[in-house]
Specification:
Layout (H helix, E strand, L loop, with lengths): L1 H17 L9 H21 L3 H9 L9 H18 L3 H23 L9 H8 L9 H10 L11 H8 L4 H8 L3
């Protein structure tokens, strides 16, 4: 997974890294590798610290993948911290690289995961890699499909009785049932 992610970082690295005077040219490859590793570790941290719902929601397309997304902000902070520590960039330079790079990389990752013709970015393999194999018994694609279908009405990360109740509130039960059968 890391190799595929680093390839996405390379594709997005133009203005953020390669054409950025804050990053010395001889450090461009190192900066790309640091960014890829930091994005991966940021996603791993989110999953291990109970942020699975945030990550799944991002991959489902239910959340915009931009600078205002809390997941993107957290991962950008991780990238900026690594660039400061490993390349000696100051906080403004590292923050600039991260904010111009991370949203595009994550948006590209989400698009590739959701492209059925792209076998390089399988959601199950990505989550298995990110979780150290602990999601291997979980149908991650099935969870993602639930998010996409909007079945998680209350946004709590699961589909349960509260979601069914929410789906049928705000209108008559017969109207909802008619909508199911195209009437």
């Amino acid at each position: 997974m890391l190799e595929n992610l680093i390839e996405l970082v390379k594709q997005q690295a133009g203005n953020a890294i390669v054409n950025n005077p804050a990053v010395p040219n001889e450090k461009n490859g190192e900066a790309v590798a640091i960014a890829g590793e930091s994005i991966t570790s940021g996603l791993q941290q989110m999953i291990s610290q109970g942020g699975l719902k945030q990550v799944l929601s991002m991959f489902s397309g239910k959340q915009d993948v931009n600078e205002s997304n809390p997941a993107v902000q957290q991962i950008s902070g991780n990238v900026a911290g690594s660039l400061m520590e490993k390349l000696g960039l100051n906080s403004q330079q590292a923050g600039g690289v991260a904010s111009s790079l991370v949203p595009g990389v994550l948006q590209s990752l989400v698009q590739r995961v959701n492209d059925p013709s792209d076998n390089n970015f399988n959601i199950q393999h990505i989550f298995n890699s990110l979780s150290g194999g602990s999601t291997s018994g979980i149908d991650v694609q099935g969870l993602l499909n639930r998010f996409k279908a909007g079945l998680d009405q209350d946004g709590d990360g699961d589909v349960d009785l509260q979601d069914l109740t929410a789906a049928f509130s705000g209108g008559g039960l017969m109207d909802k049932l008619k909508g199911l059968f195209g009437r």
